[in-house]
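> forwarded from #structure-qc
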């Protein structure tokens, strides 16, 4: 079961060194109480979902991906770019992540320049950290890391995506990624549905039983977490916690985006884990201030307040 641990001193120190999210304007007496709050991004490419969240002042950025663009109605690369341009304009100067669709390093760098030109001040280029060997025409497994590094050399901000273990996050940061995105919800979904608790240690938090690496070896490794009976459904938040600890210990400033969030409970868990940023689908964001007891309380206050209207 997920337990509440104190944030380490290193993590708190790291947080204080990060950019202030809620600045207090000069001359204002009441300082903002959440200057170092984590940022909230909307995980959607649908402009009608983004606009009200932006106007309500509850998002500090947007993350998109090809699936979200398709869902938003894009049927061609040009249509995708039109949608992305509109989001970049609406969100300016707040960051918007735009994902590469090319998979060959030189073409990826070229496409990154093309996407950056859509919004030079707030575009963040999303690069898949791994997974290239799984494509129809398999690529060099280091493709993602190489491209992250090349973009860092060109002063292009990046978001390393499709991260499912803490070493991927470390390598991406080491390559120069500005942000790293552990997909905590997908990992938790996968573990919840597919992990096999009856297997002996070696059935790790992150191993996928039927998956083999390029040499044909099975990806089986162990972690203290599972060996000591850690709950598999909590794997997502555990991943975020591991990355936060590693980054704090080594003074790594790549910001950690808890991604693929499924529900408000996971939001609470990654806040407790100390994530820098939470990227959240609009429907989940829509529920964060809801609670049945809030509804009940509101109705009773509203009823009692009627006496004051006469
Ligand atoms: C992150 O940047 C991704 O867009 C996103 O969180 C993916 O989440 P999913 O698992 O809901 O597709």
């Amino acid at each position: 079961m997920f337990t509440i641990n104190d944030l380490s001193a290193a993590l708190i120190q790291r947080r204080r060194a990060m950019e202030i999210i809620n600045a207090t304007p000069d001359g204002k007496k009441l300082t903002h109480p959440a200057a170092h709050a984590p940022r909230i991004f909307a995980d959607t490419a649908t402009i009608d979902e983004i606009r009200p969240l932006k106007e309500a002042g509850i998002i500090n950025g947007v993350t998109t991906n090809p699936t979200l663009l398709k869902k938003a109605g894009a049927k061609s690369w040009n249509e995708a770019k039109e949608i992305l341009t509109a989001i970049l304009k609406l969100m300016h100067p707040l960051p918007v992540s735009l994902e590469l669709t090319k998979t060959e390093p030189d073409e990826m760098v070229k496409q990154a320049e093309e996407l950056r030109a859509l919004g030079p001040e707030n575009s963040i280029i999303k690069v898949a950290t791994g997974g290239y060997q799984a494509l129809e025409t398999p690529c060099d497994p280091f493709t993602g890391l190489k491209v992250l590094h090349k973009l860092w050399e060109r002063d292009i901000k990046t978001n390393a995506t499709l991260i499912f273990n803490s070493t991927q996050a470390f390598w991406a940061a080491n390559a120069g990624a500005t942000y790293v995105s552990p997909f905590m919800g997908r990992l938790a979904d996968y573990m919840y549905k597919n992990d096999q608790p009856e297997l002996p240690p070696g059935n790790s938090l992150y191993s996928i039983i039927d998956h083999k690496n390029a040499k044909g070896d099975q990806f089986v490794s162990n972690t203290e977490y599972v060996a000591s009976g850690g709950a598999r459904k909590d794997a997502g938040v555990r991943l975020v916690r591991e990355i936060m600890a590693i980054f704090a210990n080594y003074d790594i400033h790549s910001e950690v985006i808890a991604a693929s969030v499924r529900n408000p409970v996971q939001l609470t868990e990654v806040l407790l884990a100390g994530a820098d940023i939470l990227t959240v689908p609009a429907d989940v964001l829509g529920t964060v201030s809801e609670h049945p007891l809030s509804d009940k309380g509101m109705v009773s206050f509203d009823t009692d307040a009627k006496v004051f209207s006469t």
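QC bot note: The longest strand covers residues 123-128. Residues 105 and 143 are 6 Å apart (CA to CA).
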